[in-house]
Every structure is written in C-alpha cells, then in structure tokens.
Amino acid sequence: MFRRNEQHRQKSFLSAQGLLPTKLRDELRMSWAETFYRVVLCRIDETIFAPLYSKNASRPNVPVNVLVALSVLKAGFGWSDEVLHEQVCFNLQVRHALGFHDLRAEIFTLRSVYNFRRRVKEYEEETGIDLMKKAFEQINDEHLELVAVATGWERMDSSQILSNLAEMNRLELLVAVVQAVYEGLPESVEGDWAGRWSTYLEGRPHQVCYKIPDGEVKEHLATIGQELSAVEQVLVEETPESDILTLVTRVLEEQYEREADETVNLRPGEEVSAKSLQSPHDPDATFRVKGGVPFRGGFVMNVSETADPENPLQLITDVQVEPNHTDDATLMEQSLDDQAERDIEVEKVTTDGGFTGPQGEEACEKHDVELRATRMRGGRSGADKWGWEEYTWEGDDEGTPARVTCPEGCTSDLVPGQAEGAFIARFDPECCADCPYFKNLCRVQDRSRVGPTLYVRARTIKVAQQRQSLHPEDTSIRVVVESTIRSVKRGFPNNKLPVRGLTRARTMILGAATMVNVRRLHEYFRGRAQDASQQLALSLSSAKKAIFHCLSEIPRHIPRLAQPVVSSPG
Question: Could you report the per-residue pLDDT of 286-296, keeping only the tens digit for each?
Fold first, then answer.
C-alpha cells in the first residue's frame, strides 16, 4: 500500500543532531547533507510512484523519497549497494541527508531496494513510462525555479560511457552466447545439448577461448553458428516467445548469413552492424568508434545545461542515455522535445559540430531555437577549390536561393536546374574573362555554349550559409559542458558504469546529474550564507564604531558642574 513519507519532518528531541556539540551541529547544518535533504528528499513527488503499489489496505511501503534519494547518492558517490547500505547505517551525514534523524529508526534492507528497482523496470516495460526519469526531471525543474535560473541559453554535449561488461573478441562473444543459451534452455532439452556444447561450457568465455589455437578460431566460429541454428529450431517448438530464442535469432542475423539450405556462414567483420550484440548480459549495449577510439558495449549520454552568463550558477536541465550508436542530432531532438514538454523555454543552444546536420536543424526549427554551433560536421573543401562558404548567397522572401556572388565580386541569378534541389548560375563572360581564379580556384565552370556556369545544390548552399554563421566565439562557453560531463562521470572509474542494461544505466546517469546540481546548489547557498555573515559582521562593526563615537562625544556636551563659578571683578 502506498503512503507518503512525512515522518522525516517530525524531529525528535533525542535526535542524533541534538546530541552533538553546538559546533558540530552547526557544521552538519552547513554541510552538503542539509542541502541534499532540503533540495532532493523534501522535494521528491512520491505520488509519481503510486502505481507501483496496491490500493488495498496492506503493509505500508518503504518511503519512496528515500528509495529515490538512494539512487542519487549511489550514482553521485559511486557506491556499491553494500557500501550504500553501510553509509546509511553509520554515516551521520548520509542519515541526515535521508531524513533519518532518530538513531533508533529502522533502516531499510537491500532487498527493499532491489524490489523497488524491479518494480520500476517492469512498469516501464509494461507502460513505456520511466518513473525514475520523471522523478529526476521533477526534482531538477524545482531546482531551476528555486534559484530562478534563466534557461534561454543552453549548451550541450555527448559522451561515451561503458556498460559493466568484460571486453570480448568475436569468439568470446559467441561462446558467451552459447553459455547464456544453455542456462536458459528448458529442462526437457537441456541434457541434449550438454554433451554437444561441452567444449564451450568449461569455464568463462576467455578461459575457453584461451585453449583454442589461432588457426582453429574460424572453424569454431562456423561451428557455433551451426549449433545456434540447430537450437533455434528446438526453441521455436519448445519456447516460441522466450527471451533466449530472441537472443539466438538476433545473434544469427547479426553474425551470420543464412542460406536456403539452412546452413549459416560467418559474416565478414566489416559487415557486422554497430548495433550488434556486444554481450548476452546487456542486449542494449552497442559498439561505436568516436574520435578514433572504439567503445565496445556501451551507451551515449547527452547533457544539457544552462549557459546564460547572467545566471548566479548553471544547472543541468536535461539528460539522455541511449545505445552508443545514437547520433548527436537525435539526442538533441530528444532533449528539445523533453524540455518543451516540461515548459522549459530554450531560445538558443551552443554545441560542437556533431549536432549539426539536417536532423539537428529541423529539431531547432521545430522549437524555434537558434543553433549556435562552434564547428560544422563534415570536412571542408580541398585546397584546390574555394569552399562554398567563400561565396555570398542571397534568397528571396520565401528563403529560396536567388543570387550568388563569387569571392571576386561577380554576381549572377540562381535558377532551378532539372534535378530536384539543383540550381544553376550563368555568370557574365566579361566578368570572368580577366579573373585570375577562373578555371582555377573558382568553382565556376567554363561551358563553351553557355559561358561560365556554376552548378550547386540547395543543401550545399544551406551548409555554406551555416558555415558562414558559425559562432567560434562561443567555444569558451561550450567547453564548460565538457567539465560538467566529467563531473557526472566522477563516480564511474575508467568510464564504466557499475550496472548493465539501458534502464539501469539511465537511472545511474540521471542520479549522478542530479548530484552535480546538488553540489552546485550547496556551493551557491554556502556562498550566499558567507556573504550574509560578512555583511552582518560589517553592519555590527559599523554600529559598534558609531556607538563608541557617540560615547566619546558625550563629555563634550556635559556641563562641567564640578568646576566653581568665578564672579567678575566689581
């Protein structure tokens, strides 16, 4: 049965904080724990999770705001579940952050945490609603309102992060699949495959593969393909809707080519998609090479944060976590859509070149957002020709390309070509005749019948105009988000999450991002408190000086009564 947690608001006279010396009690109230308690625990809307619990009268649930706050602490500090439980039991700051003011209060068990995660995941699978994401968005939206942070100008960037998987080569991956399939076989057929697969079941995948000579690797890859094809037919009859059948079918389609005679041939490595399975233990993790660095078995996280220089502090506004082959422009589209639903008004966004392109442009146009990219996706023109951005492009009232001017000042009208999106410009032969760059650096071609002609496509013109409107001056503003991403990942050593699966990865990243906001809010509030303290001290000092000055002036205004009066002669 769902019940909101209001118990933390009722503090006991025998609370742990009340037993501390005054100095330590004041330090606790000025620590991150107090900020976390006020801006996270007290602000969590527990009713978001009410659908997870029975409406019938039954045993009350473990406080939902505590369970959600635990996810933030776990991700923000990089704790394991065991360390998290230990910190809650014996760390006074952590207990204060969670509203456990009474040392005699009963502490949750780890089983309660595991059950909560399971319910959240099952609810998302049934409804498509990520309750943890909704909770984190609600908390962070209140943070934006709490300090009146302007969201009109944002910056965003993406970064790769790995799932909690062992890095495997192709043979190790397929051996791991065989082992996972064997563990999931129905008991009625399990014995039939124990002997056939004995070679691949003796030890972990890397231990199995270590014993296989290099010259026999291709043979074993082919054998595994045939075995998976054979077991697929059995599973279709025994468990047609099982997850294990889905795994077998996926691997066969990604790693092998099926022939009409039901034989399977190994695909060349270059034909295997980046979306292919990287581990049977995390079907969501994918492969990507970014910046020349391979990321095998991971996700991509995209972080958006405020960037208005007038803000007293900058806060993270939105986070996306997807399989790592997801394009940056797709992530930006998701972010702008999500923020629009939450009534976060974004007017311009500063990014690097990875977010440019048709999809990114359409996403910004959809929400009337100015895309201020510091670079453009794609390479520039070769040294043998001027770049298209060297030309000046003009459009008509509807934005259709209408005129072009070359770098030497020759101008011509643009007319539609025969192909869709193509344009042609016919330049004055006299203008081009004396140009030293004609037939050289200039892209205008010499056509004997019609004269100097320029062929260009609408997309090329649009990209050229975007290159002309880049904002390299925003580079110093954009790079700050890279530091924010490092702060989000500070609890994940070696760029690897301690969890597997997209749902758990998303929860961890969202929790870590929320903790980044908490730390920034804590520094902001502490700075304001120090400023207020200094102002008060200055005011008291000024008042003290004024009082002493008044006291020192008093004798000048008091008649000297003790001195006798001397009468004048006569």
Answer: 888 777 777 88
